[in-house]
Design brief:
iron-sulfur cluster binding; disordered C terminus; SUF system NifU family Fe-S cluster assembly protein; alpha+beta; iron ion binding
């Protein structure tokens, strides 16, 4: 019975982020704009962020159309990366990617609400939905001309 209540709570958090996404809309002054899509299910995201000269994510917004998992995950992602350096954001991206693949994540609390998406690992077709916003952020960090990131890595779509 307790597990059922927990599952219902998780579903409600996902539905809330999907129905009322945080940091949704257009950013007036952005330093980076990225558009990505998931051709498997038709999710499309436009991500904008404003980075400080010190590579801190000062603000972030997203728009587009996507399934509830894609929208909720991106909403959750925006909550945890504002105020983080690009290096810290990349570490969160790695942790989230491991989480949705069913791997253990050392600093689970750092993912905020996004940690409840661990169940996506049971549905491999939904992993791309859950990671679309995170991949857009990663690409945005690497494509930003003002960003200096140690140990640059390749960003897969």
């Amino acid at each position: 019975m307790a597990l059922s209540r927990l599952d219902n709570l998780y579903r409600q958090v996902i539905l809330d982020h999907s129905s009322h996404p945080h940091h949704h809309g257009v950013l007036d002054e952005s330093t980076t704009e990225i558009e990505m899509n998931n051709p498997t299910c038709g999710d499309v995201i436009q991500l904008q962020m404003k980075l400080t000269p010190e590579n801190v994510i000062e603000d972030i917004r997203f728009d587009g159309s996507g399934c509830s998992i894609s929208t909720a995950s991106t909403s959750m992602m925006t909550d945890v990366v504002i105020g983080k350096t690009t290096s810290e954001a990349l570490a969160l991206i790695d942790s989230f990617s491991e989480l949705v693949q069913g791997k253990d994540v050392a600093k689970l609390d750092a993912l905020g609400d996004a940690q409840i998406l661990s169940g996506v690992a049971k549905f491999p077709a939904r992993i791309k939905c859950a990671t679309l916003g995170w991949k857009a952020l990663e690409r945005g960090i690497y494509e930003n001309k003002t960003t200096t990131v140690e140990n640059q890595r390749h960003c897969d779509e």
